[in-house]
From TrEMBL:
The keyword Transcription does not apply. Contains 1 topaquinone per subunit. This is Amine oxidase. The modification 2',4',5'-topaquinone is found at residue 461. Belongs to the copper/topaquinone oxidase family. It is an enzyme of class 1 (oxidoreductase). The gene is Aoc3_0. Keywords: Copper, Metal-binding, Oxidoreductase, Signal, TPQ.
Length: 753
């Protein structure tokens, strides 16, 4: 073997050793951490969005301090106030009038003064009432004005006020005292002395204006699980309308189909063997109906969505921007999420998009169930939007935002991480085409959307509120219902009102109806309402006159008045309905946005009902009215406890005014009928229980605006599709070959209950 050969072998050996060392050094090493880049789109808002901003805790404190010093009446903290006291019930931002805001946003107008709306309960005066004050300017208040008569046409009667937490505590004390009068009955029916029974409120509270008598349904309470599936058959009617708690009384008792005047009468009837008792053992925590505890150990983690170069959206204060979108967001403690000044490519699409109300109306053969019509805004849709669970309620890497409120206390509270914002890959093309004719190519775009989400827990139900913004210029609004069903004790012909889901549990039928306000400003404030639908016309074939053909044609119509634009629930409406601006697009059609509703609502309460006017918004799947500052909302928190004389009646908004070239508002109802079934235990699933609507550009642009998306993909048969320069998808193995930096999991949602 010559020297040359030895040298070659030696070099090969060294190269092999070097390669092996490299492999050993890199084995087990994870991918590098993803490096975040600043979004390409910069926010140029300059703080203008703060004109809509929710109050800060500091501002709330200043309002409380001002009211205490300037009202001249004694105020008790609402957390401990009796009905006979005066108290500050809530404080929220007072959004300025639209004209004033638009002068500020679009012109040279001054920034409107920042103000708060304070709701006070005056129980300690000769004429108890609810009064609303506008307080300003913030952050240092110097004035307040009573706006109650201006808003509602008169004072708000005291009996219309929502029930406070302190009132519920006092009611529970009364119920416990009364239950002690039937010890033998409780021991036999429920294995209880009453102290471990949970109570569930119903609403409304009577049959006529001025009533404040509530049915409360009793359940077995088991720690760590929802009690809503464990009724014991006992319900009580409490009269709590008097200003003095000592005068409240238990007016009626119901058990297993029988009514009694009091718990003493129930006990006497039981001892006389006049009551058919169904013995219900106290559930064990490990076997209780509806337990959500895992039944198996955790498996391997599922797919994880992350952003290799960081979020592509930008958040500043109460405003988020994303690929041409700009949205100002907030949460009303009563009515829930609200968006303002929604713009796409710099043009305002909508001035306001807000949730108004959520109705749950039940049926049952038990008094509590059959009388329940929850108007959730009265309880607090926004107030009870608690902390979101990272990685389940929203993607793990989403941005989480705190929300603050002041209600039933003079101390502001924070629901931390209770709103989330994220970009969502729907794993579906927004658009695509594979060409196999004439030339071979592929073009497409992923369906990525910006999502703003919050979730409200309203007693037993959880509502997932989503607002989604698409690359096509469309807005999607959707709500999903989950959580526990409400139930009644199963007796008699209970299955006429639902399905049996447990040994003694009836899952009671109900409807969910949700109402939204959509103040569209399409190419300006002045819009008209146009409809399009199809028909068939029978015509002779131009090329074969002896034959005929059924030809589809388009029927166009402009609706002139509000009565024409009020479409009753569950009746046919035009398939295309659009807000049209005054100017055409490149092709001569009015620049428009189409409203497309996706809903399968139940039946609305009959108009003959004495309380129907309080939810008259539910008559219509869509109603379009002229926008008025004096018609800011379709309902009121005071409608729940006096639906017979509603404080706000939506039906009165529709008075046949002209709607051509006017500032218009679309009021949209969505919902579904829910007949609970076995698979609703432990919880109702979101699958199939989502409804909503779209706002879609319709000739607003000259072409689909998503063609300008940097995410677009196109390659032909003549290109190397695996080359990064020709196809951005081919870049992913390099640009996405990094490990996301995930923050540690923490949860503090139980701290602020």
């Amino acid at each position: 073997m010559n020297v040359k050969t030895v040298l070659i072998l030696l070099l090969l050996a060294l190269a092999t050793i070097f390669a092996l060392v490299c492999v050993l050094l890199t084995r087990g090493r994870g991918p590098s951490t993803c490096q975040h880049q600043r979004p390409a789109q910069e926010d140029t808002d300059d703080g203008q969005s703060l004109v809509f901003a929710d109050l800060t805790p500091e501002e709330m404190v200043q309002v409380v301090r001002y009211l205490r010093a300037n009202l001249g009446v004694p105020l008790v903290d609402a957390s401990r106030a009796k009905p006979s006291d005066n108290c500050i019930a809530s404080v929220d931002v007072q959004v300025p009038g639209k004209a004033e805001v638009l002068r500020f946003l679009d012109g040279a107008g001054a920034r409107p003064p920042r103000e708060a709306l304070a709701v006070l309960y005056f129980g300690n005066q000769p004429d108890p009432n609810v009064t609303e004050y506008v307080v300003g300017p913030l952050p240092t208040p110097a004035y307040h004005r009573d706006v109650t008569v201006q808003k509602y046409g008169g004072k708000v009667p005291y009996h219309r006020r929502p029930v406070t937490g302190k009132e519920y505590v006092d009611i529970n004390t009364l119920i416990q005292r009364e239950l002690r009068k039937a010890p033998r009955f409780l021991a036999e029916c429920c294995e209880s002395d009453g102290t471990n029974l949970a109570i569930l409120t119903t609403a409304p509270r009577g049959f006529k204006s001025g009533d404040r008598a509530t049915w409360f349904v009793l359940f077995h309470g088991v720690a760590g699980t929802g009690y809503y599936l464990s009724p014991v058959g006992l319900e009580v009617l409490v009269e709590h309308g008097d200003l003095h708690v000592s005068r409240w009384w238990l007016r009626r008792v119901f058990y297993n189909g029988q009514y009694f005047a009091s718990t003493e009468d129930l006990e006497d009837a039981f001892l006389a063997d006049l009551v058919e008792v169904v013995r219900i053992e106290k559930p064990r925590a490990e076997a209780v109906l509806g337990s959500m505890r895992p039944r198996h150990p955790p498996g391997s983690p599922g797919p994880l969505q992350y952003e290799p170069q960081g979020p592509r959206y930008s958040i500043r204060d109460n405003r988020v921007t994303f690929q041409g979108w700009s949205i100002t967001f907030g949460v009303n403690p009563n009515s829930g999420p609200r968006l303002f000044d929604i713009r796409y490519r710099g043009e305002r699409i909508a001035y306001e998009l807000s949730l108004q109300e959520a109705l749950a109306l039940y049926g049952s053969n038990c008094p509590g169930g059959m009388s329940t019509r929850y108007l959730d805004g009265s309880f607090g849709i926004g107030r009870f939007a608690y902390e979101l669970v990272r990685g389940l309620d929203c993607p793990y890497a989403a941005t989480y935002v705190d929300r603050h409120y002041l209600a039933e206390s003079e101390t502001p509270k924070t629901n931390q991480n209770s709103l989330c914002i994220f970009e969502h890959d729907a794993a579906l093309p927004l658009r695509r085409h594979f060409s196999d004719l004439q030339s071979l190519y592929y073009g497409g775009l992923r369906k990525n959307t910006l999502v703003i989400r919050t979730i409200s827990t309203l007693i037993n139900y959880d509502y997932v509120w989503d607002f989604m913004f698409h690359g096509s210029g469309a807005v999607e609004v959707r709500v999903h219902a989950t959580g526990y069903i409400s139930s009644s004790f199963l007796y008699g012909r209970g299955t006429d009102y639902g399905n049996r889901v447990g040994l003694h549990t009836l899952g009671t039928m109900h409807i969910h109806h949700i109402h939204y306000k959509v103040d569209l400003d399409v190419d300006g404030q002045l819009n008209s309402l146009e409809t399009q639908d199809m028909g068939y016309e029978l015509v002779k074939d131009p090329w074969s006159m002896q034959n005929t053909i059924e030809r589809p044609y388009l029927h166009r119509k402009r609706l002139e008045r509000e009565d024409e634009a009020a479409f009753p629930l569950n009746t046919p409406m035009p398939r295309y309905l659009s807000f049209a601006g005054p100017k055409p697009n490149k092709w001569g059609h009015p620049r428009s946005y189409r409203i497309q509703i996706a809903s399968f609502a139940g039946e609305h309460l009959p108009v003959s009902s004495s309380m129907e006017r309080s939810i008259s918004w539910g008559r219509y799947q869509l109603a379009v009215t002229r926008r008025k500052e004096e018609e800011p909302t379709s309902t009121s928190i005071y409608n729940q406890n006096d639906p017979w004389t509603p404080t706000v009646t939506f039906a009165d908004f529709i008075d046949n005014e002209t709607i051509t070239n006017e500032d218009l508002v679309a009021w949209i109802s969505v919902g579904f009928l829910h007949v609970p079934h076995a698979e609703d235990v432990p919880n109702t699933v979101t699958v199939g229980n989502g409804v909503g609507f779209f706002l879609r550009p319709y000739n607003y642009f000259d072409e689909d605006p998503s063609v300008d998306s940097p995410d677009s993909v196109y390659f032909s048969s003549e290109q190397d599709a695996g080359a990064c320069g020709a196809n951005p998808l081919a870049c992913l193995p390099h640009t996405a070959a990094c490990a996301p930096h995930l923050p540690p999991f923490r949860y503090g949602g139980f701290l602020n209950i």
